Amino acid sequence: CPMPHAQCPMPNAPCPMPNSLFAVQYAHARCCSLVLLAHREGLIKLREPVLNTSPAFWSVIAPNPISWLNCDGTLRLNHPDERRLIGELVQVVDNIKCPDISDSVKWEKITLNLSQAFEKFWSNCRIWGEVKITSPEVAQARLGLLMATQSVLRYVLEENLGVFAPLEL
Questions:
Q1: What are the pLDDT digits (tens) for 109-167?
Q2: CA–CA dist 91, 108 (Å, integer)
Q3: How far apart, in Å, are the Cα atoms of 78 and each of 25, 27, 41?
Q4: Exposed site from 72, 137, 138, 147, fewest CB < 10 Å?
């Protein structure tokens, strides 16, 4: 356990890393702020985004749907960090949807992996600046990936880990 033995809630059991849930909550809040920024800058249009409401109730009205595919049907998201994030999302959603194994899932660990994949994606896959101007479809596809990440993070934080999914920090 990374915490001092006396502070660990169950000294003989593995103790969760104290910063891992914060990292996941931070990733969720970051996703929320980026979605709202995209709305303010006109990359997407949300139906009545209200800061103090759950992002589960924010709905995209334009573009709808946000396409991850080019005109020829190929995936727009080809950067290695985009693909890693998609892979982590698939793994977490598989664990959510497959009830026969979900009891043995280490939710904190797989959600931390997802938040780390998001941070790497966010660091290396631009949405604003030149990408927004020259390839708005790529910027929107990346926003779609970001919104999917936010949704999965929120669900796991609230439903599987029983903690608050903050909209901002």
A1: 999 999 999 999 999 999 999 998 999 999 999 999 999 999 999 999 999 999 999 88
A2: 13
A3: 27, 22, 24
A4: 72
* List of domains in the chain: 20-160 (1.10.730.10)
Place of tokens 């960090």: 81
Cα dihedral 90, 61, 130, 168 sign: negative
Residue indicated by tokens 């904190």: 108
Taking the model in full, what pTM does it have? 0.82
Who contacts 141 (Cβ-Cβ below 8 Å, separation ≥6)?
Answer: 66, 67, 68, 76, 77
Name the token pair of 16.
Answer: 């969760």
DSSP designation for 128: S
Could you report the per-residue pLDDT of 47-61, keeping only the tens digit for each? 766 655 555 556 777
Longest dimension (CA), the chain: 60
